[in-house]
Amino acid sequence: MRVLFVCTANRLRSPTAEDLFRDWPGIEAISAGTDSEAPRPLSKELVASADLIFAMEGSHRERIRKKYKQRPHDSRIIALHIPDEYERGDPELIALLKAKVTPTITRYQSESTGA
Question: Which of 92, 84, 75, 29 shows the shortest CA–CA distance to 56?
Answer without folding.
Answer: 84
